[in-house]
Structures are given as structure tokens and as C-alpha cells.
Amino acid sequence: MSDVRDRALTLAEAFIGTPYRHQGSRRGVGCDCLGLVRGVWRDLYGAEPEAVSAYTPDWAERADGEPLLEAARRHFHEIATSETAPGDLLVFRWRTGAAAKHCGLLGREGRLIHAYEGSAVVASPLGRAWTRRIAGAFRFPEM
Predict the structure, then answer these.
(1) Angle at 28 between CA 92 and CA 67, to 5 degrees
(2) Environment class of residue 133 by beta-carbon count within 10 Å: exposed (0-12), middle (13-18) or buried (19+)?
(3) Fewer beta carbons within 10 Å, N or C terminal of the chain?
(4) E-assigned strand segments in the chain
(5) What is the gyration radius of the CA atoms in the chain, in angstroms?
(6) For the whole model, what pTM was predicted?
(7) 3-state secondary structure of 89
(8) Residue 123 has pLDDT above 90, yes or no
């Protein structure tokens, strides 16, 4: 495993148990799925690559295009789903034709570390219900 992926995974695991908070991105305080990735990014690199404007819970239903996938492509290295390893970013869409609106990091032993709305950051099994919804897979850039 690369040093960056290993560090990203360790940082994501440290978020487990952080309460779900829409637009939050602070370990132990609160975060949503994007906030989890933003918090890991800050811990890895120091600063976020771009400002994230306020967004509503239904932002993807109102958005044109694929803003989450486009942002991932700007700042991460896109990889084939078959190449994923623990510590990589996965982006999901809830249904065919809808914009992708959920993300998390691939965890150990086939798990997904993500912020679960109404609960907290958890490590869920990455079963078929999740894998069929993957819209993109990405690797954190090397430092």
C-alpha cells in the first residue's frame, strides 16, 4: 500500500464515530460524506484545494452535470474500479441518470468508511448494493 493511501485510510478510520453533521468536516465534532473526505485531505495536505460553497441536502437533485465527480477529477487521480485498494475514494450515485452525491473511502476487508446520514461515520460492508452504485474511483495524489 502506498504511504498516502495508508495515511488516508488511518485518518478516515479516526473519523469513525464522528456524528453526522450536514456540511461539517471536523473529526470528532461532525461531518457529512464530503466533509469526511475534506477532513482527511486537510490532514494529509494542510489545506483544501478549493473552497466548498454551502450546499443543501438535495443539491445533487438540483445540480447540472456531475459536480462531485468533476471535483474528484480535478483533485484526485481517477482509477478503474478494479484497481481500488484501501484508502481510495469511491463516489456513488443513488440511481441511474442521477448525479453522484455520496462518497467514502474504501476501508479494510471490503468495507466502506462513510458518513451515514442520521448517524455517524461508520465502516459498512461494501456489498453489491454499494458496488453497483459506484460512479467513480479515485486515488489521493502522492505528496
Answers:
(1) 25
(2) middle
(3) C
(4) 25-26, 30-31, 77-79, 89-92, 102-106, 111-115, 121-125, 134-139
(5) 14
(6) 0.94
(7) strand
(8) yes
